[in-house]
Amino acid sequence: MNGRMITAIDFTRLGVLLGAEGLRVDKSMRDLRRVVVLAGPNGSGKSRFLRFLKRCVGKLGSAPWKMLAEDPAFRRALMQHNAGGAERMVTPHGTFRLKDVDYYLSFELLGAENVRPVAFELTLGRSARVDDGLRMTQAQSIEAMKKCEEPGLWNAYQYEWAYLLAMARGLAFGDEDGSVEEFSRILRALLGTELGWNRDAANMPMPRLFGRPFNPDELSEGQKVLIAWAISLHRQRRRLRHAVVLIDEPENHLHPDVCIRALQALRDEVLGDYGQIWVATHSIPLIAWARIDSLYAVNDGKIEYAGNNVCKVVDALAGGSEGREQLRTFLADAEQIGLYHFIAQCLVEPSVVISKENDPQEKSFATVVEKLLKENDALRILDYGAGRCRLAEALTKAFSDKPDLLRRIQYLAYDRDTTFASERQARLNALCKAGALAEEVNVLDLRPKDEQVDLVVLCNVLHEIPAGEWAGVFRNCRQALKPTGSLIVIEDQTPSVGELPHRKGFIILNCSEMKLLLQEDEELVGDGISGVRRGKNVVIDLSNNVPEDWCGRISILQVPAASLNVENLNLDKALGAVVDRCRDEVEKLRSDASASPMQRTGRLHALYAMMWMNAELARGVSVCR
């Protein structure tokens, strides 16, 4: 253990020192938690108090705390000093200037006795810049890695090029201790992307982020700050263990959600049992995360426990009592806003999905393809309803550093709509350039045996097709598939945007409903891709390939060609199951009276109510009873 947590500060002896800083505290700070929040408007004194606290904690390191505080000779010398006596005293623990004594007797600490507290700042200066790691010599790169171990964001920000370069080379040459994987996990949690690498013209491993070569000039300031946070959490873990960490306005450059995730990772994964975060902020979401019992209000240099006056704190940050009331109304209306917005969208034709950074469906599809390539020498894929060919782009990005995999892929795109033909062709050309074979086809051309495919993919397609036409689509898929091939159905089970793809509306089947549709009564032993299949009708849930943050929302179903029994679909049974599921979800949402109004709750209410009605319409049941 190399530090201790501050549980209380007695300001009675610090009055003069606080006054010199333009600060004042009427009461002691007691029962301090692992997170302490100083909230107030700009210029209120939050940053000044953090600087003052750092100096005080630094003084505490001059001697073992408990031994000094309980030393009778020390107490007598202190009394003489306060009466205008000696300036210095000698104790078994060292010689001390008595004018500094107030620092020692003003703090209560939690942790191992005789261990001094340590304080570090995790705040980035305004003039910070990212050095070009490519211009560094090997000696400079080694020195940069050492400097990244020093607690704080400054060096982590300045040397993030060199750090990512070292991590990329660790990936390329072998991550023996798992350090690079740990860093990539932190990046994924904060930035939603993983560290990758590819070789440059000189055959040297280079870092990749967001599916492209790392270039700090292409990143936002917030993204660069988050990379610095990731480096600090990774490289400075040992030094930050059990430390008092001071952070001034971490919400600068960061979205509130990401800021909270960074602080949470620092508290739960790095600081340990006796680590502590002191944060100065004017972010209401951050205050809500830390909770009221951690909140101290700062205004005009005065610091006081918020307690029952938390409304005053919010007033100061939200623009007065009127602003707070407007915020309350907005949050209360959020559920209705979500419901009305989604319902309105359900009266509009759907738009074609565009490719997004870290799209969970694209990443899941690439994962499934990579697993299938481990079992097959080559893979012929048909993207049925390809739209803008975003799945082709997903493969180009995911396998950019795996050209041997791309050379084993033949990618075929089919879509009746010609609106995005030029975009499809551009992405197919990019996939060809990366090493795969890719072209646009007519699904009818795939019926001869020598033209059949290993995999047909319906991504966000099936729910847009009227239920009465599902049999025709499955028939086309079965005729395009080799006897050993499979259909993959990818859907977002709780889409954030509503749509009206046709007169009877969208219906999203889950795994059990797809099984009912195909009248499956058999089981699978294994993981789905390489599992042992028993019987002829098998629907396999591949949702274990979905990124962790999207589990339960993105579904991936694999249907072997032999299971596409289109002559005997049990449509009514499947639609009845959709009705039952959506009715149960609506009742559950309405019965949860304790739930806070949220836009997502309203959206889910609208989704299930709309899909309930759509399934009834598809069954031919009148909804006006």
Question: What can you tell me about this protein's structure?
Answer:
- With 625 residues, the chain is an alpha/beta fold.
- It folds into four domains: 1-118 and 243-318, Rossmann fold, CATH 3.40.50; 126-238, no CATH class; 328-348 and 570-620, no CATH class; 360-568, 3-Layer(aba) Sandwich (Rossmann fold).
- The chain is 42% helix and 17% strand.
- It has 23 helices and 23 strands.
- It has a seven-stranded mixed sheet with strand order 2-14-13-3-12-11-7, sandwiched between helices. It has a seven-stranded mixed sheet with strand order 17-16-15-18-19-23-22. The protein has a three-stranded antiparallel sheet with strand order 8-9-10.
- β4 (88-91) and β5 form a beta hairpin.
- α16 crosses α17 and α21 runs antiparallel to α22 (571-591).
- The longest helix has 26 residues, at 320-345.
- The model is unreliable at 61-71, 91-96, 98-105, 522-526 and 530-536 (pLDDT under 50).
**CATH-assigned homologous superfamily of the largest domain:** Vaccinia Virus protein VP39
Shape: globular
End-to-end distance, in Å? 70 Å
Order of strands side by side in the largest beta sheet?
2-14-13-3-12-11-7
Number of helices: 23
Mean pLDDT: 80
Domains (count): 4
Decide which structural class fits the backbone.
alpha/beta
Instruction: Describe the largest sheet.
Output: 7 strands, mixed
Determine Rg (CA atoms, Å). Answer: 31 Å
At the first level of CATH, the class of the largest domain is: Alpha Beta
Task: Give short descriptive properties of this protein.
17% strand, 625 residues, seven-stranded mixed beta sheet, 23 strands, 4 domains
